[in-house]
């Protein structure tokens, strides 16, 4: 179990990126969803021991993460957003090198680890090719392979599917689900579908705070009865926005469908709709913005 208690991080320029984050994360895939600048990377870096929060407490099982970072690193796999430049060596050689950095000293053990990971991430057939020449999806899978060296118990994955085509994204998702059966995986993203497809539990982070936490289905159910939909002409969108709390707008066959939030039937041609996770997310983010403005004002 990963436990965060009142984790706060203020950067030297005064930006409060994390503001009293408290949550518990068990085994399986946990999704952390939030808009740009919400504090996701700051939180990931704090848990991965790359940055010490200003205050608060982080524990993983019996490990006090802030006091014993090296114990956490021994059981951590981290896949950052960007790896930077890959050297022009083969996937096999690079993984072998990373395994030796992780402390697997016996060549036979390393061979076993590297070969298993290359097969698991479906990179066996390209193991002699340079990682620098891999496609985006192959690089992401290589990233997971390196994050899995040494059987980590906690895996942190930052924005994993950005830029992947649907087939690669699907392949990557299946890989995460397979791994997630045995370990804790914390997945940070601003792509709602990634969470909806993968994560039995999730939280929404905005303005450095956890705004919402639970199972995606429960969060959707909680919004039941308050979401209304109508198909409108594009030209009337501004009017609708002025009159209602518009959560989302999307185009369908050239017309605009709006979803609005209202505790009572707004009438006027609106019909009740089961909001999806995207609606729940957008509502939460919009409300956190309003709250932040109110506080600031
Ligand atoms: N090194 C830093 N110094 C000062 N401010 C920072 C620093 N890193 C991040 N911030 C600020 O802290 C806030 C949270 O940033 P963070 O990168 O954690 O958000 P994020 O949710 O990961 O965003 P994104 O999805 O864009 O990566 C933002 O306002 C950001 O500008």
UniProtKB/TrEMBL annotation:
Please give the superkingdom of this protein's source: Bacteria
What stretch or stretches form a coiled coil here? Answer: none
The record's keywords, sorted A to Z, are: ATP-binding, Nucleotide-binding, Transport
Q: Extract the InterPro entries matched here.
A: AAA+_ATPase, ABC_transporter-like_ATP-bd, ABC_transporter-like_CS, P-loop_NTPase
Domain called ABC transporter: residue spans: 2-232
Q: Enumerate the GO terms in the molecular function aspect.
A: ATP binding; ATP hydrolysis activity
Family indicated by similarity: Belongs to the ABC transporter superfamily.
* UniProt cross-references to PANTHER family, sorted A to Z: ABC TRANSPORTER, ATP-BINDING PROTEIN
**Name this protein carries in UniProt:** ABC transporter ATP-binding protein
